[in-house]
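Glycosyl hydrolases family 32 protein: structure tokens wanted.
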Amino acid sequence: MTKEVCSNIGLWLLLTLLIGNYVVNLEASHHVYKRLTQSTNTKSPSVNQPYRTGFHFQPPKNWMNGPMIYKGIYHLFYQWNPKGAVWGNIVWAHSTSTDLINWDPHPPAIFPSAPFDINGCWSGSATILPNGKPVILYTGIDPKNQQVQNIAEPKNLSDPYLREWKKSPLNPLMAPDAVNGINASSFRDPTTAWLGQDKKWRVIIGSKIHRRGLAITYTSKDFLKWEKSPEPLHYDDGSGMWECPDFFPVTRFGSNGVETSSFGEPNEILKHVLKISLDDTKHDYYTIGTYDRVKDKFVPDNGFKMDGTAPRYDYGKYYASKTFFDSAKNRRILWGWTNESSSVEDDVEKGWSGIQTIPRKIWLDRSGKQLIQWPVREVERLRTKQVKNLRNKVLKSGSRLEVYGVTAAQADVEVLFKVRDLEKADVIEPSWTDPQLICSKMNVSVKSGLGPFGLMVLASKNLEEYTSVYFRIFKARQNSNKYVVLMCSDQSRSSLKEDNDKTTYGAFVDINPHQPLSLRALIDHSVVESFGGKGRACITSRVYPKLAIGKSSHLFAFNYGYQSVDVLNLNAWSMNSAQIS
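Answer:
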């Protein structure tokens, strides 16, 4: 067995607002803002930084978008533009931590320096070999703008911080050619490798052929000479380019993590997860299924299809995620990247763009039908003053209660709701299958039998601005004893600034509403990470209020539905800032 690590490094369209003459197309999801990357590299971030996060990872300035543990130290590798707050000039930046929350920076680990990566060092992953040596597989862009796969290794293994890396003279190890039929502009993002029972390494690389998205498999005996397998690990016709794939086992019993090369009877002990980032939608999707180790094939379980209908890690702003097995604490950790919802001009003005979400522990639900995510426990060390001013309270129809005594712009909030009269729930129409569309049409101002009820965060005193995270409960038309729980994150009133992306997000939560409904929100100035049903649904939002900033930010629990809702318990903590140099 091996220890391993994956590095989530996003390669995609940074923002939907493109500025006139500044854009040069590289390929479907990559854009370089030439004048901006050249002119903003010497500019210091704005002194006034109301949207800079306090406990989420982000570099001091410029554009960014992971992780492994080596000799007890966590390493985060991420794509960073050292010259500006937009995509371009990408290097592999590097920071280390002992707790996943506080981070120290190091010089970039990898940067363009050779023909096989002279036009860019793009995404990849790391694997720790059986002898304990970590190696990185990454995508390089060669002089022909072809995407090729390269390897790098540390110069000094005795340095636990792995501050210097060297590239192999054998690079590129994997390259497109006329024989293998690989699309040279869609061949990127190698995963963490795993070791098969035949002692051969496997790695998958995201690709596409026309509209067929696929995970190409390569095998190797020595990690240097790689051979393309005749068939992909998995594919789907019509889904387009598969970026940043991830493939890992999960145990069917309990929440502990499983090392990537672990063996076991798949149907009895392990299931496998295949995750992809769809270039077309800029969302991360996953399927659960069985890995045939003999045929090197992944077979999704019934009900799963690897396309835009598959479940998502996060139903908000969240992309290019990667997991790694934390051998020190026997857990699998998920990292994700979230980009800005502000304009490119605003990003340049504030001097930075992009953050990492709080790392999440991830495991398989007892049902075997979905994954559960929860912020790592280490983030709770930042909690300071705890507020308990809502316990066994009744939120009547149209009521709103402010949570006092907490720093509302930088907080951790957990609330437990109990619904009384489920029979008063509205009936959900059979055509209502898109949760985001439902949340958009039925925003927080629209009353229903049960809901909306939840939290208003980053709110101004008089509610000119607020971001609402809430539940609605519906009855199924065909079965009055079956209920549907909807979770929404509504950004439509988040800021008085009009040119921000204020998309409303939504997700169905697979939970029985006869039981209490839990909601947790990590609030950090311009990001809100929400976890519904104890991590069964997650939504990340980026918001930029003009009034509800710093000490002028407020926090409310509310119920705008027709029926009363009980608050069994509400705990809120102000959060200290993490040490991120």
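Residues 382-575 form a domain with the Jelly Rolls fold (CATH 2.60.120.560). Residues 531 and 538 are 5 Å apart (CA to CA).

Cheers.
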